[in-house]
Amino acid sequence: MCGVLAILLASQNNVAPELAEGLQLLQHRGQDACGVVTCGPKGRFYQCKGNGMVRDLLDAKSLSQLIGGMGVGHARYPTAGSSAQSEAQPFYVNSPYGIVFAHNGNLTNTDHLRYYLDHYAHRHINTSSDSELLLNLLADALQKTGKFRIDGDDIFRAVREVMQTTSGAYACTAMIAGYGIFGFRDPHGIRPMGWARRRSETVDGGWDYMMASESVVCDALGFQDWTDVKPGEAIIITREGLVTRQCVPERTIAPDMFEFVYFARPDSVLDGISVYRSRMAMGDALAENARKKLAAEGIKVDVVIPVPDTSRVAALQLAQNLGVPYREGFVKNRYVGRTFIMPGQELRRKNVRRKLNAMALEFADKTVLIVDDSIVRGTTSKEIIQMARDAGARKVIMASCAPPIRHPAVYGIDMPSRKELVAHGRTEDEISQYIGADLTIFQTLPDLVQSCAQFNPDIQEFDCSVFTGEYVTGGVTEEYLAHIEGLRADNAKQQHNGGHMQPVLETQPLDDVTGGGEVAGGGDVSQVVGLSNESLQEHELPSLVVGLSNE
Ligand SMILES: O=P(O)(O)OC[C@H]1O[C@H](OP(=O)(O)OP(=O)(O)O)[C@H](O)[C@@H]1O
Ligand SMILES: NC(=O)CC[C@H](N)C(=O)O
Ligand SMILES: [Mg+2]
């Protein structure tokens, strides 16, 4: 669940510091790697990327070397390929025109795409990242224009071709040397993205534009008029302004429910739904369920305790509804990041202990109701329930704002293995037993959906595949699930990452200057070649089309 970002300033001032600031605000979406690429005078790209957190990698010295008024940024949580430095984003291809690319999401037909790029497009793919495939498909589609200079129509057509050939989830930002930035979102809108603008401080009447995974970036950097990119829509931003186009017919919008449950920041608004309000509603709905279950079991709760950070909003609401005191019984070490998105079970387990400390005075001799947003592998709940007992709790009741997660995620959350999911093949009582609780109370799926849907009547469907096993894009077969399980289960990843194989071309983390010396994409309107009448048919890949019509 990476974070993507792109900014184009009306002026030629360096945009890198703002990109780094924006990425800090998206850090919760990916802690493994990050990067920024800017485009300076003469269409030259400047990049700084690699493994690590934004504040460590993008320091003042690195930022001072990233020149130019437009750029793309990325914060990575790997869901395909490995955690290798070479898979840090944004990615770059020099041909055609010089393209830089950042992707949030996960593709589900990568084998087909890899085959096509190898056998038909003759493009060398240097990593096992699905995002590198996506970039090369885009580059291939642009290459087919055969033009010296491209224009907006060419980009829209290329994006359309990409949408017709890929399956899965993607929200992407990109940049073409000397031309501008652009972005697009998959036809179901599974991953979030929007754009915003602000008046330029230095160019009279000019606008600065940005695109980002979450609206929180827009608030913090002083941008306004946040607008969600529609499913299947692309937007292009140049110094001439912003244009949008629906590239393929909009499918039913089905944003990923897990964004609201866990991933997104509460102060973001995704597809018109305040994440904060949706989490409050989750707490309200869970309170009703909890009231009934506790009454049925004859349990009187003394205190409600959240698992910091994400569950706080819902837990407070739940406590108020139950009329039970809310107490911060677990203190979080602010220097430890999110544990769920850390690679490897041992690391995750150790970090729960490093991150959370139980205060005995809130647990001793009490019946505690601990609230978390979700129970996925059960790593957090197992540890904190033990901590609560060690701190003297008489009874420990666990409550989850999400229903049991029994199915693998394929659209950008790294939980591809059923075996790793605590709820897979277990009843609610068995889950409770496994995590060591006296009772575990789950949200129902209808209540969860209603907690979000009530805030935007236009969205009635969410991607709830991890709860239901129904995948909105289709094409996610048993065979595919077994395949990704083999590739990405914790033990398999250790093997892939453990070899420390270096790719042929390793990217430089700092001060890496790439790109040509000339303005490649556009800028000079007189160089824009007129639209050709070639039909999309010529670009069609019959064996790869995944179900979108060519209209
Ligand atoms: O059952 P598990 O596999 O442990 O996963 C679920 C837990 O992981 C997440 O916390 P995380 O520490 O990542 O982030 P947070 O600080 O935002 O709550 C989530 O909020 C749950 O607490
Ligand atoms: N979490 C994401 O969005 C990951 C993007 C891409 N699949 C990668 O692994 O780099
Ligand atoms: Mg948590």
From TrEMBL:
Reactions listed under catalytic activity: 5-phospho-beta-D-ribosylamine + L-glutamate + diphosphate = 5-phospho-alpha-D-ribose 1-diphosphate + L-glutamine + H2O
Single annotated GO MF: amidophosphoribosyltransferase activity
Pfam families: GATase_6, Pribosyltran
Sequence ranges assigned to domain Glutamine amidotransferase type-2 in this UniProt record: 2-240
EC nos: 2.4.2.14
Keyword Transferase recorded: yes
Origin: domain of life: Eukaryota
Keywords tagged on the record: Glutamine amidotransferase, Glycosyltransferase, Magnesium, Metal-binding, Purine biosynthesis, Transferase
Pathway(s) annotated for this protein in UniProt: Purine metabolism; IMP biosynthesis via de novo pathway; N(1)-(5-phospho-D-ribosyl)glycinamide from 5-phospho-alpha-D-ribose 1-diphosphate: step 1/2
GO biological processes: 'de novo' IMP biosynthetic process; purine nucleobase biosynthetic process
Active site, per annotation: C2
Coiled-coil features, chain-numbered ranges: none
Annotated binding of Mg(2+), by residue: T310, D372, D373
InterPro entries per UniProt: GATase_2_dom, Ntn_hydrolases_N, PRTase-like, PRTase_dom, PurF
Cofactors required: Mg(2+)
Co-factor remark: Binds 1 Mg(2+) ion per subunit.
HAMAP family with a match to the protein in the record: PurF
Alphabetical list of PANTHER family matching this protein: AMIDOPHOSPHORIBOSYLTRANSFERASE
Family: In the C-terminal section; belongs to the purine/pyrimidine phosphoribosyltransferase family.
The protein's name: Amidophosphoribosyltransferase
